[in-house]
């Protein structure tokens, strides 16, 4: 029981840290404004969290267009390129496109033609408790010709949905940033093997089907716990679930689902993996790793919602509402 309490306490600490960052970013948010940490340690932690939010989020458009990546790659691993797991990330393109368009109304996005279609974002080697490693081979090149045998599958399952990208930008980026680190495994030691593995997993782990089997389809609102239960039922492993939060509308959108694999390329639990601003939250059905609001519905959109009249950069990383979270946890654990 005391262990449980400890866990709850730690979760709350993590959450309130995020909440503080959040309130600093939006002074008008009075609900969270009281959550202040006056001491130095806490401020340092907040700085760390901010760093993580900025640098670790693989979804933001900055990930797609950020040369800082290279510096971060160097900073993060200091030449140590060891990793434990592969994170296989699929994204819900509707949410990504919506996010980009809200940030920049002229941002072009290429949605897949197929309906209810999740696309691969990447296969990311990861050391538990860390982000990365990345950019493990500074002399590596990307040669699109090596992928000619699977070009159609890549275009289908692993497309670059960013209409602003040029040519093979996403694949090149994924290979140089992540593939060069995965390449220590013989099964993934060249472009063709690495990208083929992503395709194989995309075919083997069809999120639309897994979610659909539990009655979760686009154009619905679900708790993250319901999404989690559906995924665990379909995968037999614990994934992580990522949202983008539109603070203007106060709506969380399902954005990415990440499945972890061990070095034998078998699916495994994502526990212990650092996923940007996601946290682990216990509930009676298990432990959900997520950055989605735990106590609010998560919207799984079927269409990019209509453009707003007034564009504002109001996208934030979802911050679990501390008060409601505490209520939620108490409800289930006390
Ligand atoms: C890095 O990439 C280059 C170019 O493809 C290759 O020749 C070299 O073997 C790679 N180094 C490692 C350590 O994999
Ligand atoms: C889901 O929630 C959003 C945001 O509150 C709302 O606009 C939408 O109508 C809801 N959709 C369904 C199917 O309930
Ligand atoms: C990985 O999965 C394969 C096939 O399901 C199985 O034979 C093998 O033992 C697994 N490896 C590990 C390390 O669990």
UniProtKB/TrEMBL annotation:
Species name: Musca domestica
Keywords recorded for this protein, A-Z: Disulfide bond, Endonuclease, Endoplasmic reticulum, Glycoprotein, Hydrolase, Lyase, Lysosome, Nuclease, Secreted, Signal
Catalysed transformations (reactions): an adenylyl-uridine-RNA = a 3'-end 2',3'-cyclophospho-AMP-RNA + a 5'-end dephospho-uridine-RNA; a guanylyl-uridine-RNA = a 3'-end 2',3'-cyclophospho-GMP-RNA + a 5'-end dephospho-uridine-RNA
Family the UniProt entry places it in: Belongs to the RNase T2 family.
Biological process terms in GO annotation: RNA catabolic process
Signal peptide annotation: 1-24
One Pfam family this sequence matches: Ribonuclease_T2
Chief location category: endoplasmic reticulum
Record's protein name: Ribonuclease Oy
Statement: the UniProt record of this protein carries the keyword Metal-binding: no
CDD domains: RNase_T2_euk
Gene from which this protein is expressed: 101891273
Location of the active site: 121, 174, 178
Localisation: Endoplasmic reticulum lumen; Lysosome; Secreted
InterPro entries in the cross-refs: Ribonuclease_T2_eukaryotic, RNase_T2-like, RNase_T2-like_sf, RNase_T2_His_AS_2
């Amino acid at each position: 029981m005391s262990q449980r309490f400890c866990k709850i306490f730690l979760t709350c600490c993590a959450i309130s840290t995020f909440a503080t960052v959040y309130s600093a970013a939006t002074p008008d948010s009075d609900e969270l404004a009281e959550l202040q940490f006056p001491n130095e340690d806490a401020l340092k932690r907040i700085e760390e969290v901010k760093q993580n939010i900025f640098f670790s989020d693989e979804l933001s458009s900055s990930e797609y267009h950020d040369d800082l990546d290279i510096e971060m790659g160097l900073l993060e691993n200091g030449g140590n390129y060891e990793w434990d797991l592969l994170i296989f990330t699929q994204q819900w393109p509707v949410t990504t496109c919506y996010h980009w368009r809200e940030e920049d109304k002229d941002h072009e996005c290429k949605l897949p033609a197929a309906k209810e279609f999740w696309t691969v974002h990447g296969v990311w080697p990861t050391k538990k408790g860390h982000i990365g490693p990345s950019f493990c081979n500074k002399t590596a090149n990307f040669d699109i010709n090596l992928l000619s045998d699977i070009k159609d599958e890549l275009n289908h399952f692993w497309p670059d949905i960013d209409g602003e990208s040029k040519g093979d930008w996403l694949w090149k980026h994924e290979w140089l940033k992540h593939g060069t680190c995965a390449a220590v495994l013989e099964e993934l030691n060249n472009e063709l093997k690495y990208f083929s593995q992503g395709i194989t997993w995309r075919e083997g782990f069809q999120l639309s089907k897994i979610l659909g089997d539990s009655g979760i389809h686009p154009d619905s609102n679900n708790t993250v716990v319901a999404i989690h239960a559906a995924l665990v039922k379909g995968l037999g492993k614990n994934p992580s679930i990522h949202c983008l939060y539109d603070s203007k509308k106060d709506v969380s959108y399902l954005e990415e689902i990440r499945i972890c694999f061990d070095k034998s390329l078998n699916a495994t639990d994502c526990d212990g993996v650092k996923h940007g601003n996601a946290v682990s939250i216990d509930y009676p059905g298990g432990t959900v790793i997520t950055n989605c609001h735990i106590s609010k519905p998560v919207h799984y959109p079927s269409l990019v919602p209509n453009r707003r009249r007034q564009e504002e950069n109001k996208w934030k990383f979802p911050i679990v509402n501390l008060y409601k979270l505490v209520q939620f946890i108490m409800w289930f654990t006390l």
